[in-house]
Specification:
Helix 1 crosses helix 2, helix 2 runs antiparallel to helix 3 and helix 2 crosses helix 4. The chain is mainly alpha-helical. It is elongated, with a radius of gyration of 14 Å. It is 70% helix and 0% strand.
Length: 98
Amino acid sequence: MPSILTVNVMYTQTGWNFVLETSVEEGLCKAVACMWIDYTADDYDNASFAKKLNEFRKYMIETNNSDDAEFAKARHAIEKYGFKHTLKCIASTRSIPE
C-alpha cells in the first residue's frame, strides 16, 4: 500500500514539474492513499491482520488534522468529477476543483 510519501514520489515521477501549494499536494496525496486502501480492501478476509492494519492506516489519514480542508475537497472532487478530470484541473489551475 502506498504511503503518503510514496504518493508524493509518484506525483513527482509522473512529470508534473510545477509546484503546488503544500496543502493542495498533501490533500490530494491523502485522498489517493485512502482510495488505494479502499481499492485493496477486498484483497483481505475480514479477520486478517493486514485488513485491520489498512483500516487503521485509513483512520489515521482521515483523522490527521493537517490539511483537512484540502483533503475533503480532493475526495469530493474525485467522487464528483473522477480522478483523471480532477488531476487535469489541478494541473491547469494549481488548485482542487470545488
